[in-house]
Amino acid sequence: MKVIVCGAGQVGFSLARHLSQENNDVTVIDQAPELVRRIGDSLDVKGLVGHASHPDVLEQAAADDADMIIAVTYADEINMVACQVAHSLFNVPTKIARIRHQSYLQPMWSNLFSRDHIPIDVIISPEIEVARAVTRRLRVPGAFEMIPLADDKVRLLGVRCSDTCPLVNTPLRQLTQLFPDLNIVVVGILRGGSAIVPTPDDQMLAGDEVYFVVDSEHLLRAMAAFGHDETEAKRLLIFGGGNIGLFLAQEIENEHPWVIAKIIESDAERAESIAGQLERTVVLKGDVLDEQILEEANIGATETVVAVTNDDETNILASLLAKRSGSRRAITLINNMTYEPLITSLGIDVVVSPRIITTSSILQHVRRGRVHSVHSIKDNFGELIEADALETSSLVGPPLKEVKLPAGVLIGAIVRGGQVITPRGDTVIQAKDRVVLFAAAEAVRKVEDLFSVQLEYF
User: Fold this and answer.
1) Which of 148, 127, 152, 131 lies closest to 76, judged by CA?
2) In this structure, is residue 431 part of a structural domain?
3) Residue 186: inside a domain
4) Which of 47, 75, 145, 301 has a CA positioned 20 to 30 A from the CA of residue 171?
5) CATH number of 363's domain
């Protein structure tokens, strides 16, 4: 597939890396020569310096032969015009754009992006996606990651193993024998900065970050097995009243009315504006690093704080200050992921990366065929893919122990007729089954080769 990526920033770089690893023909356009040079030196992609919405630049990028354009430059208007030019002059079939300014996304203006006006097939709003990701994490206290799959019948959870975790130091193949009611599949382990796709002989150790797939009905039982029995927060404090903070508060008001939420926002005009858009959420004007403001917000009685200001350092310091003041859990937005290994060791519970979330949202629209969703796990660790099995698939028919999956590929769950099946060696996948599988980054290309016809993944 030939893809043009407009914008060589963090999201553009991440997309180009994912797509090039999967043997796609990728061209990246950016106005900054240093960014184009960096992406050309690091990845097997073509770099082009220029304005992404200019017809002559898109022509140089071979837009007339492209299957898709993904516009993720810093400016909404450039992204929109790039898609318009790609459609009108070069007839590019699929157009994806990142749109940040919420005025463009109001329901009353939804017709703006129709085929007759600005023809964009998929619009990604990072702020909305991040707010939804934070809300998902709030639903499962004790987990640093939670992704619903197969109409929420299956979930991917990420948890940290403590010294008291009952499951540590046990080979994964023995988990079923020792915990017969524990229907989980461990698909990934992060240990000391290294990513591990586990084999049945591997075991979890204290300090590991573990990703597992579980039947949603067994979620509480699975969390208890990992030593987590925390209850959902009833008091929430949000640091930062920008778009993410506002969307999060609105989501809490709509979906979790029993939660008492407060927002601290430093800008007086913004604080007044969001207060007028919220019904039950209390908005305080002040500095999130001011202990007097935190005391006024009753930080000591707040179970969870969510730091989503536009400054990484402020988010980190405010989260640590909240934890010191008695808050049980801190969810922290970080754009610069070089901080992550440091801050998790400081006691911050959950790190949220807008880049990873935005990239994951876009990738699930890049996949073709019977794919329902794609989720990136960590930074270049791998992808969780949810798709329907077809009759022609090599997965259909033989027991799983006889299916030769590439190294780094694990089947996490099968959903058939609304029922969740935890895969075992004698499990047989049938046509039309919903299959949830994990593919490590280096195995994604092999997954493409293996399933390009049978499961129509790509």
Assistant:
1) 127
2) yes
3) no
4) 145
5) 3.30.70.1450
Structure tokens at 449: 């080769």
What is the value of pTM for the model shown? 0.84
Let me know if residue 160 belongs to a domain.
no
In the chain, the amino acid numbered 118 is I
pLDDT in tens, 189-198: 998 878 889 9
Count Cβ atoms below 10 Å from residue 103 Cβ, excluding itself: 8
Task: Output the domain CATH number for residue 102.
Answer: 3.40.50.720
Rounded distance, CA 384 to CA 403, Å?
A: 19
Alpha-carbon gap, residue 75 to 52, rounded angstroms: 11
Asked if 302 and 232 count as a contact pair (C-beta separation under 8 A), the reply is: no
Q: Is 240 exposed, middle or buried (0-12, 13-18, 19+ CB in 10 A)?
A: buried
| Number of domains, the chain | 3
Residue numbers of the domain that contains 373: 357-451
Statement to judge: residues 345 and 386 lie in one domain:
no
Tens of pLDDT, residue by residue over 68-113, are 999 999 999 999 999 999 999 999 999 999 999 888 888 888 788 8
| Residue that terminates a domain, selected from 84, 99, 124 | 124
Q: Which of 66, 95, 124 is the last residue of a domain?
A: 124
16: Cβ–Cβ under 8 A, 6 or more apart, which residues?
A: 5, 8, 26, 28, 39, 43, 45
Measured from the Cβ of residue 121, the count of other Cβ atoms closer than 10 Å reads: 17
